[in-house]
Design goal:
Order of helices and strands: EEHEEHHEEHEHEEEEHEHEEEEH
Radius of gyration: 19 Å
Oligomer: single chain
CATH superfamily of the largest domain: D-amino Acid Aminotransferase, subunit A, domain 2
Strand order of the largest sheet: 2-1-6-5-3-4
CATH architecture of the largest domain: Alpha-Beta Barrel
Distance between the termini: 26 Å
Strand content: 25-35%
Bound molecules: N-(5'-phosphopyridoxyl)-D-alanine
Length: 279
C-alpha cells in the first residue's frame, strides 16, 4: 500500500498526472524516515526539516505534525511483515494546466511509500567500505531536501560504477558531504563534520551522531576539514537514515589509516544502536 493525496491504495493503482510539477521540474521536497519495528527514529527532526524545506520553496504544509504522525503510522501498519522499513514522503507543488516555469497556488501532491530495509550488521560494517571523491558542483541551497537530485544521482551512479559505496564531495578543497549521506572524520579522538549551512543537508543521523558523541564524552566539532585532512584521518564515516553510521576504509583507492576501523566509530555506533532500540 502507498499513500497518495488522502488515500491508502495499492502501489499498482497509484498514478500522478504528467502535469505534476514534481514530474516536470522536480519541484518538491521529500523526507526519508527510518522505522525499526514500530519505532520511527528522529521523527520530530525529520518533520522539522520537512517544514523548513516547504518554507524554503513556498509550499504550504498540507498537514500538521500530528496528522503526519498518524498517516505515517497508518502506512507502517500496512507493512507489519517488514521488520524495518524506510518511509519515503514526497510533496510536490502539484499539477498546473500547462508546463510553465512560474506557478500560482496549486494543491500539493502528497505521496508516501514504505520500503523494507536491512541495516548492515556491525560485523559487516567492520569489513569496511570504499568511497570516491568528486568536485561538489551543486547549488548553494543543499540544506533544502529537494526532489531535484540530478547531481546527487550522477554522483551515486559514479560511485556504483567504481564499486564504491559513496561519492564524497569537495567544494574548493573543503569536504562538504556525500551524494546521499553526511561525512565525518576522526583525528586524535576528535570528531569533525562540516557545519550546517547552505552546503550540506542537515542530516538527522548527523545530529543524532553529534548527540551520541556528547553522551560518550567524545569531543565533536562542527568545523570544516580539507580533502588532505580526510585522506590522513584516523577514521572516516558516512551517516544517513538508511546507512546509519558506516566506516569508510578507502578513498579513491587509497587506504584510510591502513584500512583500520577506529575505536571512536565503534563507540558511537554502539550508542546509536542503543538509542534506536530503546522506546
Ligand atoms: N538521503 N546528505 C544528503 C545529500 C542526503 O541525501 C542525505 C539523506 C543525508 C543524510 O540525511 P539523514 O541522516 O537525515 O538521512 C545527507 C536520504 C536517505 C535519501 O536521499 O534517500
Amino acid at each position: 500500500m502507498v499513500y497518495l493525496n488522502g488515500n491508502f491504495i495499492p502501489k499498482s493503482k497509484a498514478y500522478v498526472s504528467v502535469m505534476d510539477r514534481g514530474f516536470l521540474f522536480g519541484d518538491g521536497v521529500y523526507e526519508v524516515f527510518p522505522v525499526y519495528g514500530k519505532k520511527i527514529v528522529g521523527e520530530e527532526l525529520h518533520l522539522k526539516r520537512l517544514q523548513e524545506g516547504l518554507d524554503a520553496i513556498n509550499i504550504v504544509n498540507p498537514h500538521s505534525n500530528e496528522n503526519w504522525s498518524l498517516l505515517i503510522r497508518e502506512l507502517i501498519s500496512y507493512h507489519q511483515d517488514y521488520h524495518n522499513q524506510s518511509i519515503y514522503l514526497q510533496i510536490s507543488r502539484g499539477c498546473d494546466d500547462d508546463r510553465k516555469h512560474t506557478h500560482g497556488d496549486l494543491m500539493p501532491t502528497v505521496y508516501m511509500q514504505s520500503t523494507p530495509f536491512a541495516s548492515k550488521s556491525k560485523n559487516d560494517l567492520l569489513k569496511g567500505s570504499a568511497a570516491i571523491t568528486r568536485d561538489d558542483i551543486r547549488w548553494n541551497q543543499c540544506n533544502t531536501k529537494s526532489t531535484s537530485l540530478i547531481a546527487n544521482i550522477m554522483y551515486a551512479q559514479d560511485a556504483k560504477n567504481h564499486q564504491a559505496e559513496e561519492t564524497i564531495l569537495c567544494r574548493n578543497g573543503v569536504i562538504t558531504e556525500c551524494s546521499s549521506s553526511n561525512v565525518f572524520i576522526v583525528n586524535d579522538n576528535c570528531i569533525y563534520t562540516h557545519p550546517e549551512g547552505p552546503y550540506i543537508l542537515p542530516g538527522v543521523t548527523r545530529k543524532i551522531v553529534l548527540n551520541c558523541a556528547r553522551d560518550c564524552q567524545i569531543l565533536a566539532k562542527e568545523k570544516t576539514f580539507t580533502k588532505q585532512d580526510l585522506m590522513k584521518a584516523d577514521e572516516v564515516w558516512i551517516t544517513s537514515s538508511t546507512r546509519e553510521i558506516m566506516p569508510i576504509t578507502s578513498v579513491d583507492g587509497i587506504l584510510i589509516n591502513d584500512g583500520r576501523i577506529g575505536d571512536v566509530w565503534s563507540l558511537i555506533y554502539d550508542r546509536y544502536q542503543e538509542l534506536k532500540n530503546t522506546n
